[in-house]
Amino acid sequence: MTKTTLLKIPYSEFEFKDAISESLQREMNKSFVNKFSIENSLGVAVKRHLQRQFINTSFNGRCPTCPPTTGLKTKFLLTLQVQINYRVSFKAGLRAGLEYQLGDFYSNQSFNFSIYNSGLGTSTSREKRPMVVDATVYLSVGIGTGIATPMNQYSINYDTAMAVPNTFKNSVSYGQAFTWNSAINEKFDLSVVQRQGIFGFRSGDFALSTNNDTKRGYFGGGTDHGWTGGLILSFNVARLGIIEAGYQNFTGKYDEQGFQERQMDSLIKLKEEGRIGKEEFKQKSEKLLFENPYHSQDDYQKSFNRASNFLRLLKDNNSIRLDVESNGWFQNGIHNLINDFKFKYDNPKPIGIWIEKAF
């Protein structure tokens, strides 16, 4: 791929003169010649010549005619986020990524380590506010065409942009993330690692990333706690930078042996054994959900139930994000549709501003 500017146009002076001479000769051979036809013919000749010269040439990172490339990309980043707040609130991260491209196919592997003391993923309890750690390994495959301005692609949440950005003009990908979270698990244990499914899509200056731990559609682990789901929409707005908007939520653990959980498990087992039909299961499960709509959680577990609607501006290696916390409307809306227990979001709903710098 060739990079150039308008002041360094890659053409041969002799080829350019030949193109003009051929155009003039064709006009002179016509029976009727006027000024307009000569100007039009010269314009077409110059345009065609420049188009031939600019094939496989990149302008501002864009090259729709470039052939697929093969190669390996690696990147390492350190990030620091600080919240504008009355107390010290921060998130620090380490990201390492590797992407291998073979023609239009590519694979992305990344590692993310985060440590933070505020925001989603932390407790709102005044008594218990421990530092939280996330450790994530992400593996994905995708198909992409063309070359465009780099845009972030995300794994488990809106803070875990992959180290290697998406430089395809059009692409679609699917991956799985494996995360250990210290707020959910008291000690490190591979058996309690959370699994999420992540879909990525890009078309020109628009990109979408969505993550969820549900087994339905996303092929996640179905844990329904920790970083449970999110949606990120990204728009590349020329000189302004990249604008992102979306939703993200985090929920605490629940008692899997709670009354309503055991009742639901019994109904599912009866259905699987054929002892009750689909209609009877539906009626009984809906009655159970009406009487007990929420998962069994103690106060500390509930203190992790937080959801954010956000707006972010990214430019170069800097970003600023507005977080507006709310009820888990997106998560609970999905749970209403699939007849599952919801989570109570009765914590404070702060509005926060985060500033991030990547190194």
Which structural class should the secondary elements be placed in?
Answer: alpha+beta
Strand content: 35-45%
CATH class of the largest domain: Mainly Beta
The SSE order reads EHHEEEEEEEEEEHHHEEHE
Mean pLDDT, all residues:
86
Q: What's the architecture of the largest domain, going by CATH?
A: Beta Barrel
Reported by name, the CATH topology of the largest domain is: Porin
- Quick one: biggest sheet? 12 strands, antiparallel, barrel
The residue fraction in helices comes out at 10-25%
Layout of strands and helices, then pairs:
Blueprint: E1 2-3, H1 13-28, H2 35-53, E2 57-58, E3 70-83, E4 90-102, E5 105-116, E6 132-145, E7 170-181, E8 194-203, E9 206-212, E10 226-237, E11 241-251, H3 259-272, H4 278-291, H5 299-302, E12 306-315, E13 318-326, H6 329-337, E14 351-358
Parallel strand pairs: 1-2
Antiparallel strand pairs: 3-4, 3-14, 4-5, 5-6, 6-7, 7-8, 8-9, 9-10, 10-11, 11-12, 12-13, 13-14
Polypeptide structure, described:
With 359 residues, the protein is of the alpha+beta class. The chain folds into three domains: 12-53; 70-255 and 299-358, Inverse autotransporter, beta-domain (Porin), CATH 2.40.160; 259-291. Helix content is 21%, strand content 38%. The protein contains six helices and 14 strands. Strands 3-4-5-6-7-8-9-10-11-12-13-14 form a twelve-stranded antiparallel β-barrel. A two-stranded parallel ribbon has the order 1-2. Strand 4 (90-102) and strand 5 (105-116) form a beta hairpin. The longest helix has 19 residues, at 35-53. The protein starts with a strand and ends with a strand. The model is unreliable at 1-11 (pLDDT under 50).
